[in-house]
Amino acid sequence: MVTLLYEFLYVLTFCSGILAIASNPVGVGKVGILLFLGQIALTSLLVIFKNSKTTGRFISIGILSAFTIFIIILSRYDEFLGLAVENVRLLWLLVFALASFMIGELAAYVRVFGIVVSALSFASLVPIMILKYDISKLYVAAVFMLVLLTLISEFQRRWKKSGDKDLKKHMVFVSPFILLIIIVILILPYSPKPYNWTIVKNIYETITETVRDIRIKASIRKNEDYAEGQMGFSDRGEFAGEVKSSEETVLSVFGIPNETDNLKLRGKNFSTFTGKQWIDDDASNEPDSMFDTIGIVASIADYDDSIRDYVRWEMMRIEYIQMNTSYIFAPEKAAIRKSNLPIYSFDVINSGSDLLWPKSKSYKTAYNMAYLLVNTENEDFANFLVNGKTPLEKTYNIILKTQFGLELDEEYSYQNFIAHQQYIHDFYGKEVVLSDELKDYTDKLYEGCENDVEKLDRIKELLQSFEYTETPGMIPEYVDSESEFLDYFILESRKGYCSYFATACTLLARAEGIPARYVQGYDIKNGSRNSMYVSSNMAHAWCEVYFDGAGWVSYDCTPGFGGGTYWASESKHSDLPPLTIYERKETPTDETNLPEVQEEPEDEGFVIKWYMVAIPVFAGIVIIALFFLIFKISAAVRLNKMDYDRKFVVLCKQIFTVLKLLGKPIKESETIYEYKVRLSADYEEDLLTFTEDLENYLYNPSGNEKGFKEACEKAFKIRDTLLEDLKKRSIVRFIRYHLVN
Which of 164, 197, 271, 401 could make a disulfide contact with 407, Cβ separation 3.0–4.6 Å? Predict the structure, then answer.
């Protein structure tokens, strides 16, 4: 019992500390009384299991097995699975319990480890005060508890004392006083005014800067994919029921123009939508980005010199931080070109409409990017989108030579440019068929529109009137086509995050014969700043629409996003037709030959049936019995294989145990002979001969093997006779004997 309480002191101290500092970061939530008691109970089970004898461990295994079978049975029910998914974060309590147990045991029995951990824990309070972290009093109390345990332990080790010198007993004895001090710490109020240790804070910041590179390199993901539902750039086009924010810094961007409200860095483009996810099946290896940039410059030259005021060259520098990717992040109209200028000479791979590095790039990869800054918010540029045309061959070749220096590169020839433009119309202008209900609505939506630009503006205005949420729920199972997604999102749900809005915009544009694609990258709200750190939660999705004159142009329909670059802009607004309540049409079925459908009983919720409990309990008992049987057989085999002297000692211990259960235990100050005399009043001489053999063993250990063999044979008979007597007197004590031996 003393050992158990001694280990409790350390293990539960670490249990409290770990729960206090780790519960919020992993999503378990704020530490309340129920959560704290549950964690204490779970951790205590590990200490009890460690200090239990064989029978206790068998029972623990049986209980664990029964609980496991109980969970397996419940997992067949959707209601239970839903409840389990909602509370899956509580599995962290198992991790906390294991960590608390292992660290606590080490601190209790490894002196140096306990001292070091105590010192580090106490030292951790300094940066907490300096950096003004919001830490719970439970963590502070746990730290003080650990420090007090360590100090008292060291004091006890050095205190020269007589009598009982057992360290564990002394620690358990003073534990109520330690707990009283900790309770006082928890009860006493504290000042909300933080400390301000400027010198120590400066030292801490210096150390932090020194290890920053190491930390970043260690935390970089192995690839650009994020787990489903985690906000961040990904080369996958899957939809999740909800997205979670992530604050890690992935990029730094320098040279952002002041005229840019939202800088978009394109990363991954997608071409085909399945109803639940986007895929990229664009197998082209043409230089899409370069054709896009060269084309708009040549088209503007053919269109009107005045439009030149709304397009200008800019330079940007991008650096990877916590990023490991093969994708090149670039603004629209980027000039990734092969010329004699080193600044533009880095190699790229054109894959579909993506820009890729030959090999994945990571931390401290930096590159400069020349690009065209386009005033997308100006009415004159909107007119160019409507009236701009594919550039003439002569103009295209002049621009290719004078501004790009690529007149000798066959890859960028006018013939290839025209062929790629036709490919975009064919591949990204795939027909999207709308349902009758949505077609009726879009006909009203586009009333009065004279061109594609006005239709796209109406689409944007419609979608931005919907609700933005990061928890829209999973897309229904019946949605497995473009048409059904549009019906679900526009006519039913009308809420989602960026992927929903970008998808709807792309599909609605294609339904009107306008080439469009789905893009994933980063949307940076710079707030007039020229340089920015880009974090994962700036990851975004939007639609890009293709115009023969202007090339790819962004249409961001997500509420709260949008915007672009400007010198002068005009706001536009139109009245949208109202959306009515939509009832999804089910596929008609022939009911003439169907059997009568019985009314289903009302759902009474999740109910635990009797067999759900009975089966696990029975299985647990069977498992305990099986383990016990194996143990008894193993113990019997080990006993038979022992030397006769060792076997005799084991048998004597068993006889003493039986006598104790019969109410005749040996007294603390009693000799074996005195014990025999006392037993002779109740038992015949034949049952007490083992005492003589035991005295010979203890005081004359040089007895021969034959003597021990005879002693063992007699001891076997005596034990079995006493067990028969115990069975007659008390069946409970008889079972108890077999459980512990």
Answer: 401
